[in-house]
Amino acid sequence: MPYIQLKTPIPGPQSQALQARRSAAVTAALGQASPIAAKKAHGSLVEDVDGNTLIDLAGGIGVLAAGHTPQAVVEAIKAQAEDLIHICSIVANHESYVEVCEMLNRLTPGQFPKKTFLASGGAESVENAVKFARRYTGRDGILVFEGAYHGRSNLTMAMTSKWSLFKKGFGPFAPEVYRLPMPNLYRTPKGMTPEEYLEWACWNLDNALIAHIDPSALAAIVIEPVLGEGGFVPVPHKFLRKIREVCDATGAVMIADEIQSGSGRTGKLWAIEHSGVVPDLIISAKSLGAGMPISAVTGRAEIMDSPHVGGQGSTYGGNPLASVAAIEALKYLSRPEVLAKAATVERVVREVFEPLQKEIPAIGDVRGIGAMMAVEFVKDPQTKEPWPEFVLEAIKAASANGVILIRAGLYTNCIRFLPALEIPEDMLREGLEVVAAAIRSTHKALAVGA
């Protein structure tokens, strides 16, 4: 029996009714990728309010590496809710806050003393990491990269690359943020080899310390080891090593934003571990809490201790409910047999879409690491002109047939896959075949007028 069970068209009448209520009550500025209204979910299956069962390949935008409602997390939240829901770490201590920090100090890369600070969301922790770096170095400047997504607060919007979706109409933005190209090897400039492009990007990083900012003013370089919103582009290891070299030479802090790529998503607990590069600070969130709002900055103790007492704080950061969820999530996601499942996800995604790439020229690239995979769509495989309209139509078709998906990419021309690490292989294949069929039908419909 297939996992997808559709009792009504998607969206069904109850989903449509709730959507009408949302339209009347909720700001129109809030986007929505899927037309369904969820009622309950477990593992990788979601039941909507109409009784339809769908396969979730979006994972709450990377939050659900452990799947929906993992039993250990649910039981920990229930037990904690009976004892202590909130106290605020500024007011009093509680054990689960300390335990999360101890676990992150132990599990993040680097053989040096570490400390951790907890917050509620990814953008908050990006800001906190910048504050730690600025206080430690006594400098202001922050280097970031094209394609980056770091959040929706004022500072993190300044750090984020994609203007039209995240920044339009919201400026002016925070100063002292400098942006450089990140070598996306799929889009190697014409006339250059990928190796030459990578060499140029490394040279440009050195050049930026003359053209954009002096080393004496540089507080930190912030990089996603795998671009998230930017289209699941793995950062070349050589470029990560270059960033480490520049930080070592200038005294700047190297910050790895692992909000989406961390917590086991790529088959290692932190994506930067694939490169062997050790950052000074790591930012984690999303799957860290298995669906509960928690984020963290973890890193060198001397950096984390540099602000004055009271200089950092978060009313809800490390909330007892979120902390116990993170403890159970980390216990689960750090198990070698669970991390190994990410390779299965990557293998199956490639087995479905790499052959399809030969059939559908609109598939420009199939890339990613582990359970963080994307397919990029282009109008022409030679010019690589982005085709965002194709992605929108393909996602609509897949949603109508029972698969929850979301887009990605600087040009919004990618379908991203963020399934639970332990999604059963036959369930994953069923979901991906629905997506493949949607791609075929979309290509047939759009290619006529292309």
UniProtKB/TrEMBL annotation:
Its cofactor is pyridoxal 5'-phosphate. Its EC number is 2.6.1.19. GO terms for molecular function: 4-aminobutyrate:2-oxoglutarate transaminase activity; identical protein binding; pyridoxal phosphate binding. It holds the Pfam family Aminotran_3. It comes from the Bacteria. Signal peptide: none annotated. Keywords: Aminotransferase, Pyridoxal phosphate, Transferase. Belongs to the class-III pyridoxal-phosphate-dependent aminotransferase family. This is 4-aminobutyrate aminotransferase. The gene is gabT.
